[in-house]
Amino acid sequence: MKNRVVLSLLFCVGVAVVSLAVGQAQRPAPPLEPNKFGYWSGKAVRESVANLKAGERPAFEGLNRGEHNFSLSHRDRSGAPEMHANWTDIYFIESGEGTLTYGGKLEGAEERRPGEFGGGKIVGGKQQKLVAGDIASSPAGMPHQWLVEDGKTLTYVTVKVAKIDDMRH
Fold first, then answer.
1. Which domain holds residue 128?
2. What is the DSSP string of 42-85?
3. Is residue 122 part of a domain?
4. CATH number at residue 37
5. Total domain count for the chain?
6. Which of 4, 36, 62, 102 reaches 20 to 30 Å from 12, CA-CA?
7. pLDDT per residue over 14-42, tens digit each?
């Protein structure tokens, strides 16, 4: 079971590098497609990110496998705090730089969907600066927030993996 999860994650990461969907604003998850092969050329990915204006999102969407999904996010400003009760986020920084505030307690957030919280503020969190080539992960239930300095951008792939209570079998 553990080997299947690892192999599935590695495959997902390989395809995720060229997937697109921006995480700055909430949009419905793509339809469940457990058997569809996904491909987005590196050229199309670079062009769609290069031509974005502030607040715009590329037309490409990530792929939803059910127990995991992935997307490419491009930020030109900081995001709101959020927390996912049932999803671990794994981030692969493609370009730019930003700071991830993580941990602590999420206060004043709203439950936007079951298990999905956003807004408010993180109290007592830590910060980690991230640059191109870095990898980080926020486990399910951990508050986190992306901070991007004025005039800078951050592009990263997020792989979301469903929380599994016990992987020791």
1. 2-162
2. HHHHHHHHHTPPTT---S---EE-SSEEEEEEEESS----EEES
3. yes
4. 2.60.120.10
5. 1
6. 102
7. 433 323 333 333 456 667 777 778 777 77
